Amino acid sequence: MRSLLPCDELGEIGNRIVHLYNWNNELTKRLYKSQIKEKEAELLALQSHINPHFLYNTLNTIFWMAEKLKAKQISKIAINLSKIFKLTLNDGNHITSVKNEMEQVKSYLDIQNIRFDHKIDYTFTIDPEIMEERMIKLMLQPIVENSVYHGLEHQESGTIMIEGKKQDDGLLFKILDTGNGFDMNEVDISNKGYALKNINERLKLYYGKEYGLKIESEIGKGTTVYLKIGLKNDGILHDNN
What we know:
The protein is α+β, with helices and mostly antiparallel strands. 50% of the residues lie in helices and 20% in strands. It has 6 helices and 7 strands, in the order αααβαββαββαββ.
């Protein structure tokens, strides 16, 4: 069947369709950037109330006072808390490395073990090849904190295991705890803690809808969180304009 439209009109329609397609892609990209900046603004708003120099100087004072008094536990808390804040602030950069994320988790767990008399056993199995990979910050520590608060804090002892490796076009982390667990049929996972919801949203905004977190849990057997992080982001991640 012949077209009722001249070739030049068909070409013009085709050009308009291509233009609309490109325009829609640009609007989508701008929306992602806007949503990303809004999420990062939440972190920056918290950080803006912290004076790093005051914080470091105060923690340093606590550390040396504790050392002088031979209060080793206090000095350990001070030095680990200093590391946590330094890694969280990250010189104002929202991009960090896997290595820094793991150091932050370790410092957090070391403080909790002082609080809870070393009742939390933890192991990290991270592929050395991914330690310098870049990722958005504050992905792992909030999940571990959730495991401690909801799963291990009221137990006599417990374990947290973190595994990390490359998988396909991204990084896959597995955070497992031997806490109380919960019935997944009775709990709305999307509303189980602001931190987890925030992490899931940030991952999808930065890397795409195929990335994010997945939770598996069973009462009496603990909880496992799978975290999928992208390595490529089509230019959105590093575009801060």
